[in-house]
Design a protein that fits this description.
Blueprint lengths: L1 H21 L2 E8 L10 E5 L2 E6 L3 E8 L1 E8 L12 E5 L4 E8 L3 E6 L1 H8 L3 E2 L8
Parallel strand pairs: 1-7, 4-9
Antiparallel strand pairs: 1-4, 2-3, 2-5, 5-6, 7-8
Length: 135
């Protein structure tokens, strides 16, 4: 009887741990602070091929995701025929934020930023809390 009790407790503990482990999340913060290039149109940002936000110039957005590997990409808005940027694979750690800069050079791309660099950029930006609304 004692062995069955120990096995039952072990099974409950294992199930509880597995449930807790699945609930670990982190955040991805997209930052769009570029200057004049494309400043009048929304860039569409994607996490794991799902559209999560339409960001205007001088905005950032924060998204909660499960901890682990994810791909992020951006597609410039407007009437442009440009395609989505090359996906960037990132690892999101539980309880931490991964910062992604939407950068324009010859074309739009995603680049990972350090927390210090992101914090400096975000001071001049406005958070977009209504990512997929047209308002």
């Amino acid at each position: 009887m004692k062995t069955i009790s120990v096995l039952l407790i072990a099974l409950i503990s294992l199930c509880s741990y597995k449930t807790f482990a699945q609930q670990k999340t982190g955040t991805i913060c997209f930052i769009r602070a570029n200057g004049y290039v494309g400043s009048m149109v929304n860039d569409k940002v994607y996490i794991d091929d799902s559209l999560v936000c339409k960001l205007k110039n001088k905005q950032y957005s924060i998204h909660t995701v499960p901890a682990g590997a994810h791909t992020v990409a951006v597609n410039p808005g407007g009437l442009s025929t440009q395609k989505r940027s090359t996906p960037l694979t990132i690892t999101v750690e539980a309880g931490k934020t991964t910062y992604i800069d939407i950068a324009w050079a010859d074309k739009v791309s995603c680049q990972e930023l350090t927390a210090n660099s992101a914090t400096l950029k975000m001071q001049k930006l406005k958070q977009n809390n209504k990512c997929l609304s047209d308002k």
